[in-house]
Every structure is written in C-alpha cells, then in structure tokens.
Design brief:
The protein folds into 3 domains: about 130 residues, no CATH class; about 120 residues, NAD(P)-binding Rossmann-like Domain (Rossmann fold), CATH 3.40.50.720; about 270 residues, NAD(P)-binding Rossmann-like Domain (Rossmann fold, 3-Layer(aba) Sandwich). It is about 45% helix and about 15% strand. It is built from 19 helices and 22 strands. The protein is elongated, with a radius of gyration of 35 Å. The protein starts with 9 loop residues before the first helix and ends in a 17-residue tail after the last helix.
Length: about 625
C-alpha cells in the first residue's frame, strides 16, 4: 500500500498472511463441528498446529506471496495465492496416510478440515488483498471524484481495458457502463458493470456527466465506430482508442497506450482490402522505381513495396531532407532491403536517362507531381513543366528501356478540371494513355480523392490551426471532398500495377463525400474543444481554381467492373499519340516564353472540359 508515500513492508504482509491462515484453520474446525469443537479433537489439533504453520510459512516463503504490491493485485496474484495455498494443503494431505499407516493409526488432520481450511485460506488471503486495494483506491481517489468512463466493447479487449484502468490508480477513472453491438449482451454485466446495446448510447450519456468513451473493440464495423464516436462528440465526451493487440507492450495493455481517436476513424466506410498475393508476385525480386518517393504517397508506396521483397528499390525525389528521412526509415525498418536513393528532378531528361540506363527498372510508380491547387494557379508554367513534361520524360524513357509496367498516380482533380493543377494532370493522363501500345510497357493510371494526413492536405492544416487556438479556416460551407487513407491509396496503386493490361484508368468506390466543415467540427471536438466557445470556424471563400464538389469520373466517362467490387475502370475516349504529342510541344513553347495566358489557353484547347473556377483564367474557357 502507499497511503503515506511508502509501500506496506513485506514482513507486515507476511505476518498478516500468517495470522489469516491461523484463522482459516480455526474457522475450518468451527465449521466442520458446527461451532462446537469436541474435546477429543483438541489434542490432535495441538499436535498438528506447529507442523501446519511450518508448512504454510514455508509455502509463503517459496511462493513469495508477500512480495507483491497490494494496490496492484490482479488475476495473476490471485492465481499464485491459490497455487501456494493448495500445494501446502496437498502436502499436508499426503501426511495423513503416512501418519495413519506408519505411525499411530490416526490422521494428521481430517481430510474435511484440510479442504475447508484450503478454501478459507484462499478466500482470506485474496479478499485481504482486494480489500486493501479497494480501500487504497477509495482513499486515494474517492468514487465521487473519479471521472466516469464508458467502454465501447464488452468483449475480451473491453474487459482488459477496464482492468487496466482499475490498476492504474493515478488515472482517476471509474467505468460506469459498457456499450456493445451484440444484442445478446444487452442487460448483462461484465465484472459488475452493466452492458448496454449501442442503440441505447444516448440514454447512457444523457445527463450522466460522462467524461470519456474508450473504443476497445478491435475490429468494429466502420459505420458503427463512426456512429458511436460522433454521438459521443455531440455530448462533448472525450473519445479515446485502444490500439491493436499487436501493438501492446509485451502483450499487455498500458494506460499510456490508450490515445485519442484519429480523424481516420471517422472515415465511415469499409476499408478497401486488396489482393496481396498478386502484388507479391509482381514485385518480388524485381527492380522498382518510385518517382516522388519522399512524398506522402511515394513514401507510403516505398514502405509497401519494401514489404514485398523487391530485388532493388530505387527511390527518386528532389527534396533532399525528405528523401534523407525516407532512406533512414527504410534502412531501419527493412535492414535486408536492397535500396538506392537518388536525388534528382524528373524534368532533367539527361539525369533521368542516366538513372534508367543505370538501374533498368522493371516497374515504375510515377508519384512525382505538384499538387497544391492555389499555388499552381499562380505558377502554371511550373505545373506544366513537372506534371506534364516531367511525366512525358519518364513515360518515354520507360518505353525506351522496355519497362514492364508504368503506373501513374493521378487525382480526382483531373476530372472536369477547374484549375491548372487538375488540367495538367489530365494532360499527363492523356499522354500516358496515348503511349499505351507504342512498346512493351503497360501504362496504367490510378485516380483517387484526397488522402487523409498527406502533406499539404486539409487534415494537417486543421490540426495546426487547432493547436494555435484557431480560427479553423474553411473556404465554403458547401465544399465536399472524397477521402481515403494513405495505405489504401498505396494499395490501389500496387494493385493497379498487377491487374492493368494497359491504357486503363482505375478509380475507387470511395463511398460518400465528406463536407469539409463537418470534418473541421469533428476535429475540434476530437481535440477536446468546444466549437465557438473554445475555437471558431472562419469561412474564407473559395480559393482560385477550387471547386465545391470533386468527381472521380468525367461526365462522358462510363465505368466497368473489375474483379474487386470497389475498384472500377473508367472508360475514357482516347486521343491519338501524335495529337497529344503536338499539344505538349506547343505547351512547352509557351513555358519557354513564360506566357501563362497562352499556356492556359492551350491547355483548355487540349482539355475542352477544363473550366476555370474563381480564377483569372476563366476568360479562356472554351465555349
């Protein structure tokens, strides 16, 4: 115990245990003989008592039952006490036939006494510890002062979470209810705590002054998780999350591992799972080149590729610090990985030619691109140089050096583009598709929405604004976006590289689009702050080139199914290679003259559906 800053000495615990087993022996006799011990039993008891105490004391010393910190008493301590008590009881039971047959024809202690004594000793020792533990907890943290906690998940993980809270007195938490999706658990109790179905969550939270909700279900349905978390946030309940079992320290959960939920947990749809065996087959032992490897998608791709044991992974990026950090992480996490880190710019043709001729990649994942919409609206020449011309260089070299598969990472902003960035990615798509069939290389395009947590995305921006006290800026209350996680995005790219035959544009079924203002509200609540009281949302107006709604398929596009129900192929009208090539050369003439007006006008000729939104280039829209 630790009422005054010190633990109860071991010798004190030992003496108390010794006194308790003395009481258990006396209690056994009282129960056995209905509280009237016959005089004939007194003599044998006086003889047996010293031997009994010697056995119990030796078992305590060998089993070190006195060594545990009582305030942390748990299941393992109780099991150890049971083993020590009953091993001593078994030893004394062995004395009985020995004394009876080899000595004086009487038993050491009656078998009934031994059984009752074993039961009483076990109960006395365990109850003593639990009583001290409960008294300590109550004195240290009175129930009235503890923060009320509801645990979502009444299974094994939920019970482990409760026990973790119970043993960590410093947390000042008290579990008052379990929530569970299983209707068969409704109304039952787990360790004395009532279980409610999640449909009754509002009843549990309403007026109960609940401080925290802990999500302890290991694999809940995403829509159930979102519903529970959203409801908790509406009641201003702080939401925490128990990590997966494989991340527990030495297989045990620590309170410090229980963290706030991530905004990814509110994605609200089934995580898309792909076929890893095909990916493994296509990557294992091959030379893989990733452009833009230091970016969010590129670095995620590099990590996933490394898991599939490539023969050589070539990571290319022009961002020196970021590619240095990626190299450090990859060499640390994958010590057997054959890795080459290259600092270079995809726009430098001679540098790229040297890279291809040196490493001879068999598979190229092209993730290098400029992606910030307002910034590219102000710098159209740079957008075209990187997103269009840089793509052409890598595509042409892939054909020249007979790369097996080329996978381009595109964006939903290339669909009916309203900005220079989206227009440049659409033209890059056109060049990739028109190059299909010109050589042995299979050209595949992947197109998806916003990636949660990627560099420059809205999530890190909101987090920074919340940490700085706000305001959180939203361009328009009606703006919606599709979201996916970085692992999902990278999985799509890898899967596309295995299933594409050439010329396809693969898109995800990304579920429902999310209102950005709702995302901002959720993040504020997840941070434990109150909207408008602690932090406010500021509407700033649409930025140049930004549109309210993103699309994954253009208006003239249809989609075809694939072997995976959540992956589709966009059917897009192709363009002749010579036509696209001529357009690219014209674009580069305007880039060389820094004539942004002529450049954007030519982009809109190549992509007639390109209509600028809230931009100075709206005057060049094709009518």
């Amino acid at each position: 115990m630790q009422f005054s800053g010190q633990n109860l000495p071991r010798w004190t615990v030992f003496l108390i245990d010794t006194a308790l087993v003395m009481c258990s022996l006396f209690g056994a006799y009282m129960l056995r003989f209905e509280f009237r011990i016959p005089s004939s039993e007194v003599g044998p008891l006086v003889f047996a008592f010293p031997i009994y105490m010697i056995v119990r004391i030796l078992s305590f010393l060998i089993g070190t039952t006195y060594a545990g910190i009582i305030r942390y008493t748990g299941t393992q301590d109780s099991v150890r006490i049971l083993k020590v008590v009953w091993s001593g009881t078994l030893l004394m039971a062995v004395f009985n036939p020995l004394k009876y047959y080899l000595w004086d024809g009487s038993y050491f202690l009656p078998f009934s006494i031994l059984v009752i004594d074993g039961l009483l000793a076990s109960v006395f020792l365990i109850v003593f510890r639990l009583g001290v533990k409960m008294a300590y907890l109550e004195l240290r943290n009175p129930r009235s002062e503890r923060e009320k906690v509801v645990i979502y998940g009444a299974g094994e993980a939920g019970l482990i979470t409760k026990r973790t809270l119970d043993r960590d007195a410093g947390t000042k938490y008290r579990v008052v209810a379990f929530l569970d999706d299983d209707p068969h658990k409704q109304g039952k109790r787990a360790e004395g705590i009532r279980i409610f179905h999640t449909d009754r969550m509002r009843e549990v939270l309403e007026g109960k002054d609940i401080a925290h909700l802990i999500v302890s279900i290991q694999n809940p349905r995403p829509e159930n998780r979102r519903r529970v978390i959203s409801t908790a946030l509406k009641y201003e309940v702080d939401v925490l999350n128990v990590p997966p079992v494989n991340r527990w320290i030495n297989g045990q959960l620590s309170f410090r591992q229980i963290q706030k939920v991530r905004i990814e947990d509110l994605l609200g749809r089934e995580v898309i799972k792909l076929e890893n065996s095909l990916v493994e087959k296509s990557i294992k032992g091959k030379t893989i080149l990733i452009t833009g490897a230091a970016g969010s998608i590129g670095s995620g791709l590099a990590r996933q590729v490394a898991k599939h044991r490539p023969g050589l992974l070539v990571a290319l990026d022009q961002a020196e610090s970021a590619i240095f950090e990626l190299e450090h992480d990859l060499r640390s996490d994958f010590p057997d990985l054959n890795l080459e880190v290259v600092v270079g710019d995809i726009r430098r043709e001679r540098r790229m030619d040297n890279l291809f001729s040196t490493y001879r990649p068999e598979m190229v994942f092209h993730a290098a691109a400029y992606k910030h919409v307002p910034l590219m609206e102000s710098n159209p020449s740079e957008a075209v140089m990187t997103n269009v011309w840089g793509t052409r260089i890598v595509v042409d070299l892939s054909l020249e050096y007979e790369v097996d598969t080329f996978v381009m990472i595109s964006t939903d902003k290339a669909v009916n583009p309203t900005n220079v960035m989206g227009g440049s990615k659409r033209i890059a798509e056109l060049y990739c598709r028109s190059s299909s069939g010109r050589g042995k290389t299979r050209f595949v395009i992947t197109r998806f929405g916003n990636v949660l947590g990627s560099n420059g995305s809205v999530i890190p921006l909101f987090k920074k604004q919340i940490e700085n006290g706000g305001p959180v800026t939203v361009t328009d209350p009606e703006v919606t976006r599709y979201f996916m996680t970085i692992p999902e995005a990278c999985s799509l790219v890898l899967e596309a590289g295995t299933m594409g035959k050439g010329g396809e544009i693969f898109v995800f079924d990304m579920g429902e689009s999310v209102k950005i203002i709702d995302l901002a509200k959720q993040m504020i609540r997840l941070s434990g702050l109150r909207l408008n009281d602690d932090i406010r949302i500021k509407i700033t107006g649409l930025r140049p080139g930004e549109k309210l709604y993103e699309e994954l398929l253009a208006t003239e596009e249809n989609s075809l199914p694939t072997h995976h129900p959540q992956i589709k192929i966009a059917q897009v009208q192709g363009r002749p290679y010579e036509e696209v090539k001529e357009g690219l050369e014209s674009l580069m003439e305007y880039v060389g003259r820094q004539d942004n007006d002529a450049l954007v006008r030519k982009m809109k000729e190549m992509v007639p559906e390109f209509r600028s939104n809230n931009s100075e280039f709206s005057k060049f829209d094709v009518t």
